[in-house]
Amino acid sequence: MSSFDLIGVGSPIMDLLATVPESFLQHVRGEKGGMVLVDADEMHGILSRLEIAPATSTGGSSANATFNAARLGLRASFLGKLGNDTLAASYRTSFVAAGVDGSRFKRGALPNARCLALVTPDAQRTLRTCLGAAMTLAPEEITAADFAGCRHAHIEGYLVFNQALADAVLAAARAAGCTVSLDLASFDVINVTRDWIFSQLHKGIDVVFANEDEIRALFQDQTSDYATLTRRLADYGVLAAVKLGKDGAWLATGDEMHRIAPVIVTDVIDTNGAGDAWAAGFLFGYLRGWPLPQCGAVASLMGAETVRHLGPIIPASHWPAVRARALALASRQS
Prior knowledge:
Blueprint: E1 4-9, E2 13-19, E3 35-37, H1 40-48, E4 55-59, H2 61-72, E5 76-82, H3 86-97, E6 105-107, E7 114-119, E8 125-130, E9 150-156, H4 163-175, E10 179-183, H5 187-203, E11 207-211, H6 212-219, H7 226-234, E12 239-243, E13 249-253, E14 256-260, H8 274-286, H9 292-306, H10 319-331
Parallel strand pairs: 1-5, 1-9, 2-7, 3-8, 5-6, 9-10, 10-11, 11-12
Antiparallel strand pairs: 2-4, 7-8, 12-13, 13-14
Helix pairs in contact: 2-8, 5-6, 6-7, 8-9, 9-10
C-alpha cells in the first residue's frame, strides 16, 4: 500500500492578495487574467502602487490543490523549494497543520516565492509572480526517491516554463510508478510551451486539467465548442477535464463524455484558486475510483466554495460544512 495518495509538484508560493480597480491594470505589464513572471524590482514597483497592503495566503497552483485535497482526506505530500525567510517558515507550518507531509520540501538560499493576485471588481484575478527560491529548483535535484510511496503526482503547468525541470519531474514520477496529472495553468504558459505539452501527451499523461482559455490556446481554436475541444484532448489518451467556471465542466476519456453541472454561486468575491480547488475535488474522487460524474460533482463543490472568499484557500471556519457535503457525495459510492 502506498504511503501517500497524492504528491503535488510545483512552486510553494506565498500569495499576496489585493483588490484593485480595473484602471490599476493599465499600469501593470501583461494581459488581464494571465500570469506573468516578474523580478523583485518589478514586484516592488507594483506593490508600491497599492493603496492598502495586500493580505497573505499560502498559494501556488499544485500547492493549492494539494492543500485542499489533504483537507478533504487524501494522504498528501508536496515537492517544491521553499526560501530562507519567515514567509517560507510560515508556509511550511500551514501545510503541515493542514495534514500535508512536509518532509519533501527542499530549501533554497533566496527569499520565498511570491505571487501578487490583483482582483478586479468582476472577480477576475491577474497574477504577477516573483519565483525567488522556487526558481532555483534544478533538474538534478529531482529523483525517483522524491516520489517513493506516492500513487499519483499532480504537476502544475507553471513548472513547464523550465522545461528541463518539468522533464526531470515527469521522468522521476513515472520511474517511481506514479500516475500523473498536469494542470495547464495559464494561456501564458501554453503560448510558449505548446510543442512541449504535445510531446508529453504523446509520452503519456493520465489526466489533463484546462480551463476555457487554456484549451483554446492549446489547440489555437477560438470557434469550436468546449465539448468538441474536450473530446479532442481526450483523443490523446488522457482523461480530459475542461473547467468552464460558472458554466460547469466537461470530462472525457475513452468512450465516456460527461457534462458536469456547476454549483451556482451568487456571492462571488475572487476566482483566484478556484481551478486548483476544482482539481483537488476531482482528484479526491478519482483516486478513490469514483465514477466521473461524482468526481466532477465534488470538484464543482470545491470550486464554488473557493470563489466565495478572497484568496485561494477556503477559510477554516467553512471547512466542516464543505467536508460534510463532499463526504455525502462519497457515501453514494459505498
